[in-house]
Design goal:
This protein is of the alpha/beta class. The chain has helices spanning 13-22, 54-60, 84-98, 111-114, 117-122, 133-136, 139-148, 170-178, 192-201, 214-223, 232-235, 238-252, 287-293, 298-310, 340-343, 373-390; strands at residues 4-9, 31-37, 41-45, 77-81, 102-106, 126-128, 157-158, 183-189, 272-273, 313-322, 327-336, 349-356, 364-369. A seven-stranded mixed beta sheet has the order 4-3-2-1-5-6-7, with helices on both faces. The chain has a six-stranded mixed beta sheet with strand order 9-11-10-8-12-13. Helix 1 crosses helix 2 (54-60), helix 1 (13-22) packs across helix 16 and helix 9 (192-201) packs across helix 10 (214-223). The longest helix is centred in the last third of the chain and has 18 residues, at 373-390. It is globular and about 70 Å long.
Length: 397
């Protein structure tokens, strides 16, 4: 097989970066983008047409706010209303007819798209995605994805970018497990937003001058685009809980002599998750209102910081999977200033420590940028390369 076909659903910041990277000189001969889909439109491209550059490809897909084109802007292009269900059926039929493997890349955050994964995989399509929802929601959906991979001629599944963007967190975990290591504990700062907030609010080396108020740090983070439009979406801890759910489930489906982890039937909603949203602000409808009212609660966060400083520690929002204790949780913890989670972190970095039988004296640590469209896209494209290699494409990189 000389190349793989690729269909991308979700052409936002990450999706655009994926297109840019797949059409780079190093990869343009290995991947053929045959479809782009946003929330309203699907652009289909003939696999036999000459390869188009990223700018041309992206220009052919109308914005979701625009009407569906009545005629094609390019001889190789055709249009239809967006329907991921119909897209999966068509991609599977085309792949069977052409004998060319197809990768479905889901760059949405839509649960409904992830519910198509079992049908896509069992029909022979491979799935690559940064979308956490299919692996961190109900245990039934997760099990359907696992079971679909046992179907005859099933596709592959890669989800590196669901945890840590482009950081090799899932691939590291898989390598440890597949080579027979016992992973006893995983702990880390999994949220770039939480990392930025507490690296600034509770630094290992305090800056000169008065310490910043919690509300000020959150406001700056929002203004710089480090938070979601509504900062409560980050401060709820749900993003960290989803990532922990994914790692916990990958641990649980591998044989182990250690005690079983909690089953998490409702996924991230089953986790013990500490929210940092003051209860009085739970009803804030907008991010602007939340930021405006947050200063009323600075004293609560100041007390937490003062308690940590008295012990020579800092505050970090962490996720923990403790297999020996049978615990999966996320929340605010205190760490000595000499701890890697305190002294080695800066900016919005993620850091994850794997404690295992082999790494029992000192944990295996993965650290780096855990957010951003470019690094997330890198994780996605790296997964697509793995699929291509396993399907027989010769990747000379």
């Amino acid at each position: 097989m000389s190349s793989c076909c690729v269909a991308i659903v979700g052409v936002g910041l990450v999706g655009k970066q994926v297109v840019q990277q797949l059409t780079s000189p190093a990869l343009s001969g290995l991947f053929k983008i045959v479809s782009l889909t946003n929330s309203k439109h699907t652009l289909a491209l003939s696999p036999s047409a000459p390869t188009l550059d990223a700018k041309t490809l992206l220009s052919l897909l109308p914005a979701s706010s625009q009407p569906l084109p009545t005629e094609s802007a390019h001889p190789a292009a055709s249009y239809s209303p967006a329907s991921p269900t119909e897209l999966v059926k068509k991609l599977a039929a085309d792949a069977r007819a052409s004998k060319q493997h197809t990768i479905l890349i889901d760059c949405t955050s839509d649960l409904a798209v992830t519910e198509l994964y079992p049908a896509a995989i069992s029909s022979g399509l491979s799935v690559v995605t940064p979308n956490k929802k299919g692996f961190s929601s109900s245990s039934d959906l997760f099990q359907q994805v696992v079971d679909a991979q046992s179907a005859p001629n099933a596709g592959l599944v890669y989800l590196e970018a669901t945890v840590g963007a482009g950081l090799p967190i899932i691939s590291t975990l898989r390598d440890l497990l597949k080579t027979g290591d016992e992973v006893t504990k995983i702990e880390g700062v999994f949220s770039g937003t939480m990392s930025y907030i507490f690296n600034n609010f509770s630094p290992a080396t305090p800056a000169d001058g008065p310490a910043p108020k919690f509300s000020e740090v959150v406001k700056v983070a929002k203004e710089n685009g480090y938070t979601e439009p509504h900062p409560a979406d980050d401060l709820s801890g749900s993003d960290v809980a989803r990532k922990l759910t994914i790692l916990s489930r990958l641990l649980s489906i591998n044989p182990s002599s250690l005690a079983a982890l909690p089953s998490l039937p409702d996924g991230y909603a089953s986790l013990d998750t500490e929210t940092l949203i003051p209860s009085a602000l739970a009803d804030c409808k907008t991010g602007d209102e939340f930021v405006q009212r947050l200063p009323d609660h600075d004293a609560e966060f100041e007390q937490l910081r003062a308690e940590a400083e008295k012990e020579g520690k800092v505050l970090r929002y962490v996720g923990v999977i403790d297999r020996e204790a049978g615990v999966v949780k996320c929340g605010l913890e205190k760490y000595p200033v000499s701890h890697p989670f305190a002294s080695a972190l800066s900016g919005s970095d993620n850091i994850v420590a794997f404690h295992t039988a082999r790494y029992s004296q000192r944990p295996l640590i993965v650290q780096g940028a855990g957010a951003g469209a470019d690094v997330t896209a890198m994780g996605v494209v790296a997964d697509a390369i793995k699929v291509a290699e396993r399907m027989g494409v010769r990747v000379h990189l």
